[in-house]
Design brief:
alpha/beta; eight-stranded mixed beta sheet; three-stranded antiparallel beta sheet
Length: 231
């Protein structure tokens, strides 16, 4: 199977209005910048997006929010995006807030073929409304359904032409999970190498989970909140 694509535009071929997408990244760390730009330029709309974050006003998923391409966000942290707040409060954007660990497990379980699981996170809160509650060993748990995406978009530091990926530091949090949950997974990498160039023990995600891969360009790697120590 040929997995290598020349650029983001070709790698997102097949995306359609109304699809469910999963995105890797933690805050602005390790987000698939090139894929997001290509999705914005494609003009598709009515998307449901699963992501730890919603980007910021002019970067990351914030670019799709600017174009009103997202109809629903499934996220755990959205505190850095004023446009997100405006769209949510005006009713233009549907939001499904999810505890961060639960969101991670939804993606991991989806990738592992597990349709649902029980978790204590959210018991007794609005998170539990309308969900099955069961008791195990004297403690209550709520049933959460896993997530499978139509497309997943992830970003890695290095990958080979089979799709084996290596992530750097915080980028390893949600990227592998999002990749596993995708019916079609698109990976963009800073460095693309030949098959066999990566040491097996260094690989964080098997290429078995990656359908398409391309070498990205012009990564900005922004910081959400820069904190400097006093001089």
């Amino acid at each position: 199977m040929k997995k290598v694509y020349p650029d983001a535009k070709s790698a997102i071929e097949g995306v359609k209005d109304g699809m469910l997408f999963a995105f890797g990244g933690f805050g602005l760390v390790g987000i698939p910048e090139n894929s997001i730009l290509a999705l914005r330029d494609s003009g598709i709309k009515n998307l449901t997006c699963v992501s730890n974050n919603a980007g910021v006003d002019d970067f990351g998923l914030g670019l799709l929010l600017q174009k009103r391409q997202i109809k629903k966000m499934i996220s755990s942290y959205v505190g850095e995006n004023e446009l997100f707040e405006k769209l949510y409060l005006s009713g233009e954007l549907e939001v499904e807030f999810t505890p961060q660990g639960t969101l991670a497990e939804k993606l991991r379980a989806g990738g592992a073929g597990i349709p649902a699981f029980f978790t204590p996170a959210g018991v007794g809160t609005k998170i539990a409304e309308g969900k099955e509650v069961r008791e195990f060993n004297g403690r209550k748990y709520i049933l959460e359904r896993s997530i499978r995406s139509d497309f997943s978009f992830v970003k890695a530091w290095k990958g080979d032409k089979f799709g084996n990926l290596i992530f750097r530091k915080t980028a390893r949090n949600f990227n592998p999970l999002a990749a596993m949950a995708g019916n079609i997974t698109v990976a963009e990498v800073e460095e693309l190498v030949e098959i066999g160039d990566l040491k097996p023990d260094d690989i964080h995600l098997s290429g078995a989970f990656v359908n398409r891969i391309f070498k990205g360009a012009k990564y900005e790697k922004r910081i959400e909140n820069m904190t400097l120590s006093p001089s």
